[in-house]
Amino acid sequence: MPVSYMLRSILMLSCLLFMQPAFAASKNATAAKSPPCMPFIGEQMSFSVGWEFINAGTADMIVSGDPSRWQIQTSARTNRFLDLFKKVRDTITAKGVCTGKGMQSTVFDIVQHERKYHASKQTRFLWQRGKATFTQNGKTDSYDVAAGHLSVLDAFFAVRGMPLTAGKTLSIPVFDSRKRYELTVNVSSRKKKLKAPWGEFVDCIEVEPRLKTEGIFSSKGKIKIWMTDDARHIPLKMTAKIKIGHIIALLKKYQSPNKRI
After folding, report:
1. Which pairs from 185-189 meet CB under 8 Å and 24+ separation?
2. Interior/surface letters 213-229, b for 16+ CB within 10 angstroms, e for the rest
């Protein structure tokens, strides 16, 4: 079973999509209280991660910062049973700043600890110089990347603030795994009711992002995310098709930016 792939996938699943400077406020917060481009400061999410019907572990996400900058810290870990076969302790850190044009990624780091395998990858968005660097195994490469490009994790938070109209396709410039490309997101007309961590069943919108980089997801895999059909667009369920079955993540705990649902 692709346990490490599964948990890394959910780290990215728990993160990937679009950008726009105008975000809707959370259900109980006013626009005046929301940061100009990242209204999710203080949000916390915890997902259970599974492969088909087998529970594999958990993935957690915490957003911190202030109105001008943010940090998104995510972590994935296998449960005690799977630790016996392949222990996974992976983390992803994304940082960014609010500019006059909206969100701008600055840092995207991945640290993998999977049994005997250890890796560290660092991406720096030097947006004021139109560059980005990628460092792995002590080697740093530089790329031409214009301002406005996002990491896939920052892009996920950006899309949540957009109007998601059925049948619409969204697009955003992303730099990920040494590649610069347009990430597209299809908004489906299909909706379903899902049970939220706070106990009620809520209407959800289905969206399908399309990544073009290997390692977390390949362009051949299908990713689906069900978000609450309200201004917050909270991800309640996420799935990814892989060669053998599906990876499934379900939101189990949620803390809103203002600590209220």
Report:
1. 185/17, 185/18, 185/159, 185/209, 185/210, 186/210
2. beebbeeebebbbbbbb
Q: Is residue 63 part of a domain?
A: yes
pLDDT in tens, 111-125: 988 888 898 999 999
Q: What's the rounded Cα separation, in Å, for the pair 105 and 153?
A: 9
82-99 pLDDT, tens digit per residue, is: 888 888 899 999 999 999
Query: How many Å apart are CA 186 and CA 207, to the nearest integer?
Result: 6
Distance, CA of 179 to CA of 173 (rounded, Å): 10
pTM: 0.81
Domain around 182: 3-255
How is residue 50 written in tokens? 């599974």
- Domain count within the chain: 1
For residue 211, being part of any structural domain is answered with: yes
- Does residue 260 form part of some domain? no
Q: Say what the pLDDT of residue 212 is.
A: 64
